[in-house]
């Protein structure tokens, strides 16, 4: 038995096959088989995008400044909401309410409710006119 001096004490590595060995474990009777799945579509290699460099504030007097805590959060350091943040919340809620009303009015059920309302208003106006006529002296 001859030993190589370079590999003294090492276990020789088996040669790696070029392709993986197929699974040849026999299936048990009644085991469903998996159909061959075709390969998926080729995904193109997309290079990563470079992030935009961060803009650093210029020298004094350049007109660029960092936003304040109040501008970012809408609250002062004491936790009081700023006037601008309150105004924005009110405008946002108002716009949302107006938009929801417009959408509801344009829906099928909204139009039918509007038609029913107009019919009731007309019936009420007719009834009021009838009552007024009955109260007049003849």
From TrEMBL:
Name the segments for region: Disordered. Answer: 1-80
Origin: domain of life: Bacteria
Q: Where is the composition biased (Basic and acidic residues)?
A: 1-13
Question: Where along the chain is composition biased (Low complexity)?
Answer: 22-34
Biased composition of type Pro residues is found at 35-56
Its recorded name reads Phage shock protein
């Amino acid at each position: 038995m001859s030993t190589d001096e370079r590999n003294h004490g090492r276990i020789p590595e088996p040669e790696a096959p070029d392709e993986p060995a197929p699974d040849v474990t026999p299936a048990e009777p009644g085991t469903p088989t998996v159909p061959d799945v075709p390969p998926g579509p080729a995904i193109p290699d997309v290079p990563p995008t470079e992030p935009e460099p961060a803009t650093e504030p210029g020298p004094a007097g350049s007109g660029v400044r960092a936003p304040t805590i109040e501008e970012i959060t809408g609250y002062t350091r004491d936790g009081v909401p700023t006037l601008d943040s309150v105004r924005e919340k009110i405008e946002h809620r108002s716009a949302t309410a107006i938009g929801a009303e417009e959408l509801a009015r344009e829906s099928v059920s909204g139009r039918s409710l509007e038609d029913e309302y107009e019919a009731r208003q007309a019936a009420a106006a007719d009834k009021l006119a009838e009552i007024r006529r009955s109260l007049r002296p003849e």
